[in-house]
Amino acid sequence: MSRAVHPELEPSAYGLLVRLDECGRQRATELAGYIGIGKATMSRQLRALEELGLVAREPDPADGRAWLIALTGEGQERVRRVREARRARYAGRLADWDPGEVSELARLLGQLNRGMER
């Protein structure tokens, strides 16, 4: 998915973009904790995303020493396009499934997602 957003993007960076899209701006330490990577790796990935114009840093109003990371308009648009392409691909693959099976898959995937967030 990351290469669909930008050909120079590291695979793990896609998760960062999705997290920012879903949760809004966050501190780098929050992102690192969520993804499960170290500060140095996070810093490198954020610098690359910033250079590609997909994220921007802004001062944290709650702490003048800290920065918040947010998607840029370009970052939001690229994530949206990739998500739409993924949805279309899944819809095509599931077109021949029985509607009850699709509903059951959606239910089970929701259960898996909730379990992963714990």
TrEMBL record:
GO terms for biological process: response to stress. It comes from the Bacteria. Pfam families: MarR. SUPFAM superfamilies: Winged helix' DNA-binding domain. Coiled coil: none annotated. Residues 1-114 form the HTH marR-type domain. Keywords: DNA-binding, Transcription, Transcription regulation. GO terms for molecular function: DNA binding; DNA-binding transcription factor activity. The keyword Transcription applies. CDD domains: HTH_ARSR. This is HTH marR-type domain-containing protein. The lineage of its organism: Bacteria, Bacillati, Actinomycetota, Actinomycetes, Kitasatosporales.
